[in-house]
C-alpha cells in the first residue's frame, strides 16, 4: 500500500477547495466541486453569557477574522471555545500566582489543580486557534493565496 492515509482522522487534513483555488491548485489534482460553502459573517457580537475575560479575547480576534473573511457560522463554536479556553487559562494562572504551584492540605502537599487547568486550556487554545488560523502555520494553510509574481527578489528564480 502507498503512503496514503486509510484510517479516518489520520494523516494530513485536506485543504479546502477554495484554498487550493487561491493557491492555483499546485498539485493539479481534481478539485472537489461539491464542497459546501457557508456564508461568511460580516458582524457578530460576543455571547452575553461569556465572562468578561472571554469577551475581551472575542473582541480582540473576531474583528481580524471578519476582516480577512474567514469566519462563517459553523466556525462560531470554535471562536467561543477558544475564548473560553483563554479565559480559563487566565483564571487558572491567577490562582497559581495567588496560591502557588503546590498547595498544602491537612495531610500532604499536592499539585495545585489550577496547574492542570492551565495545561488543558493551553492545549485547547492551540487546537481551536489552529482551526481559526490564529497561528502562523495554520494561517498559511487557511488563507495561503499565491503571492504576486516578480516580487523583486533576485533569488526567486533560483
Task: Provide an overview of this structure.
There is one protein chain. Strands 1-2 form a two-stranded antiparallel sheet. The radius of gyration is 21 Å and the shape is elongated. It has a domain at 38-142. The protein is mainly alpha-helical and 158 residues long. A hairpin with a 4-residue loop joins β1 and β2 (109-111). The two termini are 36 Å apart. Helix content is 46%, strand content 4%. Residues 1-37, 139-158 are annotated as: Disordered. InterPro entries: Phage_term_ssu_P27. It comes from Psychrobacter coccoides.
Search tags:
158 residues; mainly alpha; two-stranded antiparallel sheet
| Helix-strand topology string | HHHEEHH
Low-pLDDT windows of residues: 143-152
- What helical percentage do the residues reach? 40-55%
The shape, in one word, is elongated
The number of E-state strands comes to 2
β content, as a range?
under 5%
**SS-derived structural category:** mainly alpha
What is the oligomer described by this structure? single chain
Q: Provide the gyration radius in Å.
A: 21 Å
Tell me, rounded to a whole number, the average pLDDT: 82
- Biggest pleated-sheet summary: 2 strands, antiparallel
Cα distance spanning the termini? 36 Å
- Order of adjacent strands in the largest pleated sheet: 1-2
How many helical elements?
5
Protein name: Phage terminase small subunit P27 family
Region (Disordered): 1-37, 139-158
InterPro entries: Phage_term_ssu_P27
Pfam families: Terminase_4
Amino acid at each position: 500500500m502507498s503512503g496514503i492515509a486509510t484510517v479516518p482522522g489520520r494523516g494530513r487534513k485536506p485543504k479546502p477547495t477554495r484554498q487550493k483555488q487561491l493557491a492555483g491548485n499546485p498539485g493539479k489534482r481534481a478539485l472537489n466541486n461539491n464542497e459546501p460553502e457557508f456564508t461568511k459573517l460580516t458582524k457578530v457580537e460576543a455571547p452575553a453569557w461569556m465572562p468578561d475575560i472571554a469577551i475581551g479575547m472575542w473582541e480582540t480576534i473576531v474583528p481580524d477574522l471578519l476582516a480577512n473573511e474567514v469566519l462563517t457560522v459553523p466556525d462560531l463554536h470554535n471562536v467561543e471555545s477558544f475564548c473560553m479556553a483563554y479565559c480559563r487559562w487566565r483564571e487558572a494562572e491567577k490562582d497559581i500566582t495567588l496560591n502557588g504551584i503546590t498547595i498544602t492540605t491537612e495531610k500532604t502537599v499536592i499539585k495545585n489543580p489550577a496547574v492542570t487547568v492551565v495545561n488543558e486550556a493551553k492545549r485547547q487554545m492551540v487546537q481551536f486557534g489552529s482551526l481559526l488560523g490564529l497561528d502562523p502555520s495554520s494561517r498559511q494553510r487557511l488563507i495561503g493565496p499565491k503571492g504576486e509574481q516578480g516580487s523583486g527578489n533576485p533569488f526567486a528564480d533560483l
